[in-house]
Design brief:
- Belongs to the COMM domain-containing protein 6 family.
- This is COMM domain-containing protein 6.
- InterPro entries: COMM, COMMD4/6/7/8.
- GO terms for molecular function: NF-kappaB binding.
- It comes from Molothrus ater.
- α2 packs parallel to α6 and α3 packs across α4.
- The chain has a three-stranded antiparallel beta sheet with strand order 1-2-3.
- It folds into two domains: 105 residues, no CATH class; 66 residues, Roll (Nuclear Transport Factor 2, Chain: A).
- The radius of gyration is 22 Å and the shape is elongated.
- The relative contact order is 0.14.
- By secondary structure, it is an alpha+beta fold.
């Protein structure tokens, strides 16, 4: 990960660290590495989304472990600087600053850790479509609903999951959401 961190400009690295701290503090549902990767690539840096996701996972593990062990800023920076593959100076400066400013606020209660291992629902979009024809069938005229769920996995990576349903399946799906809403109103 240290080799990939060297590629990331300091301002983008700082933004990534800030987002990870906010995610660990449950202030945002996750880190949109796809959007950040695109912005980094637009600035002229050759990095792919997989490498950026690895860096994000490494930093998330680093910050959560430091919080769990109640490390001071100096202890964290000293332990990072003495590793086999040491981090670049700009990365250590960013980590020092971010940890000094916001690191102590990371909640590492058992409940928060258990919740974080499940992932988090961020958004849902749906659209109605009609399949008119295909290679094998000239006249389909069958309606369907495409649902896209945006979720943040436990590491904070935001991804979209899409699936299609027939109209009866969507009606059942909708009915289940209404049941959940009515149960939540009684709580």
């Amino acid at each position: 990960a240290a080799d990939k961190i060297r590629l990331i400009p300091q301002d983008f690295f700082a933004e990534l660290c800030e987002q990870i701290i906010q995610h660990l503090n449950h202030k945002i549902p996750g880190i949109n590495t796809a959007e950040l990767c695109q912005r980094i690539q637009t600035s002229g840096v050759d990095i792919n989304i997989g490498d950026l996701a690895k860096v994000a996972n490494t930093l998330s593990f680093l910050f959560s472990t430091a919080a769990r062990n109640n490390l001071s800023t100096e202890e964290l920076v000293t332990s990072l600087g003495s590793g086999v593959s040491t981090l670049p100076k700009h990365a250590l400066q960013v980590i020092r600053h971010v940890w000094n400013e916001q690191g102590k606020a990371i909640a590492v209660s058992e409940d928060a850790r258990t919740t974080a291992t499940v992932g988090q629902f961020v958004d849902m979009k749906w659209k109605l479509g009609v399949a008119m024809s295909s290679d094998t069938c000239r006249s389909l005229k069958y309606p369907y609903v495409t649902v896209t769920l945006t979720v943040a996995d436990p590491s904070g990576q935001i991804t979209d999951k899409s699936f299609e349903m027939t109209i009866p399946q969507f009606k059942n799906f909708s009915r289940q959401f209404k049941e959940m809403a009515s149960v939540l109103e009684t709580v």
